[in-house]
Every structure is written in C-alpha cells, then in structure tokens.
Amino acid sequence: MKPRTQGADRKSRSGSLRNLTTMYPRTTICGFLLAVLLFYFQGFRSPVPRLQEIEPSSARSFRESGWKQKSDSVHELSSASEKRTDVVFFHGLRLGPAHEAHLSSWKSRSKTGEVWLMWLHEDNPSLRILAVSYDASMKKDSKNGRMDIFQVSENLLQELIMARVGKTGPVIFVGHSFGGIIAKEICRQAHLSRSLGENIPAETTLLHNLRGLFFFGVPHRGSSFTDVLEEINFEKGELVDYVKVFSKDLARLNHVFDRLCEKYEWRVAGVGESLPTLLPNGFSGVIVDEASARYRDFIMVNEDHFSICQPASRTSTSYLHLVNFIDEIHVKVRNTATDEQELPKIHVQRSVKR
Hints:
14% strand, 10 strands, AB_hydrolase_fold, alpha/beta, membrane, Rossmann fold, globular, 354 residues, transmembrane, two-stranded antiparallel ribbon, eight-stranded mixed beta sheet, SERAC1
C-alpha cells in the first residue's frame, strides 16, 4: 500500500468538508454558521485574512503608539491626568486562540487600519483607554477554551482593580459580542464580593464609579451561532454554551444585571447590526439579531457583526453613538458634582484599618 501524501490528505479532508456542507441549505443561517467553522478547520483559501489574525505591521503600530501592558490581560493607552475617566473595552469570542484580540477587534476599517480606540483619547485626553484580553476560544484544546465565564470574569475583575480602574474617577465598560456578557458578569461578581465582605474597598469603588456600559452587537438573549456546533465533531470552549438561545444562565445574569443597573444608576446604550456578515465563500447571515441585541438606549446601524465595532471614520454612526454616550456621562458627572458642590462626584478608595 502506498503511503498517503500530504496533498492526498488535504484533498480528502476538503472533500469530507464539502460533503458535510451538503447537509445544510446554503440559504439558511445554519449553513452560514457551519461555513464559518469549516473555514476555521481548513483555513481560508482566499487572500482575505482570518478574523482572528492581524498584520504584523498593525501590531507594531499598536505597540508603538503609547500602549503598554499593565498585567497579563489588561493593556493601557497612556492617559496624562489623574482626574480621568477609564474606558475599558472587552472583545468577543474567537474561532481560535485569541492572540492580540484586544487589538484586532478594534481595528478601524479605514485605509490605515489603525486601532480606532486611539481616536477617543486624541479627541479627549482625559480618557484613559484600556483593552482586555482573555481566553475567548470557541474551540477547546490543551491550552485554549478551558476557562468558564466565572473564572474569566474573576481574573479580569482582579486585574482591573490592580490597574487602578475606577480608583479616582468614572468608569465606562464597552463590550463587543460576548465581551458585553463578560462585562456584565464582572459587575455581578464585584457586587457579590462586596455583599460577602470580600475586598470591600476595591469592589465598592469600582461599582460606584462605574457610570455606564456600551454594547456593540451583544447577544443579551443568546445567538443561533451556537446551534451549528452541535452538528460537528467539535469540542466547544467553556464559554460557548453560555450564549445559547434560551440559556438559563444568561437569563439569570440578565435579571441580576437589570437590578444592578437600578441600584447603581448605570446608564446603558448599544448598537445592533442590520447587515449580514459576509464570508469569502459567499455565505452570509446576521449573527446577533435585533431581538437579542436590543437593550435600553439602542439603535440599529448598517454594519455587520464585525464592522459594527470597527468604524471607518470618526463620522461613523456606531462611533458617534459611543462618543455621545461618553459625553452624556461626563455631563451627568459634572451636573451631580455641581448640585452637591463636589468636583467630581466619585467614590474614592480609602485604606481600611485592620
């Protein structure tokens, strides 16, 4: 028997994948989602880069533009003033390892492809911009996709506290897709820790200084994207089941988060995608529909699931909605400070005598 060549193995694998796709109609969302995963397994054959990949030049630009790593998961764009507002960005799930997802998720669709978070700091130097990274792989292997939402959020909460997020000023959380779920879970865990008397000063400061959350295409009520995983011999990452449609865990988180918004008077806004997400092979579909993404001060924009958080310019609708949201929070902080003759009205962490 002749040994199988590498080329033969590739052809066999491609053929098997093509056969598998015939099980699903091309016009259905299930077929679209299956194609996403099949592209991950065999790699894109078009010149379009994988969604989880970035160009080395962009990575260099990111690192050379004032960003510095504060901890394993927290990356900071330098901000001068101590009287600042911390804006923290959370990326979503990835098809593979989330290397530098805190960068690639926020790349502008302009010609330069720069990380548009810099625009916020350029327009308002009092903003300290931070982007977090975490194990967001949809595929579980020996290194990736092994942490559940509690572990991820607990780690991020502690690292944000170590980075002094919210210690001296207002905080705003911004999440794309599953990143919004992570942001809400961090809020829940901070409140739980405070209620149990664990690390009271740090959690209390963050909770009281958190002024708002902004969501880009977040599946608050789940996404059918997870359905296709049930049809494939694919070991899912620990986070995937959390965003199934009708997920009980997600419903419980939403219930708690609604109550926390009322207790701490957090403002909430977001944008949803109205365009299908296109792939190089021709499949298309909306990944997070309006019914799942709609929450509080919400608008729909003419973007797909990825371009929704990758504005092409400062005049893009999604970018302007975020800027207006930040401005409204600043106005509220100033008005509160004026009414109570305090500037600013924030909760400052103080040491506790033991």
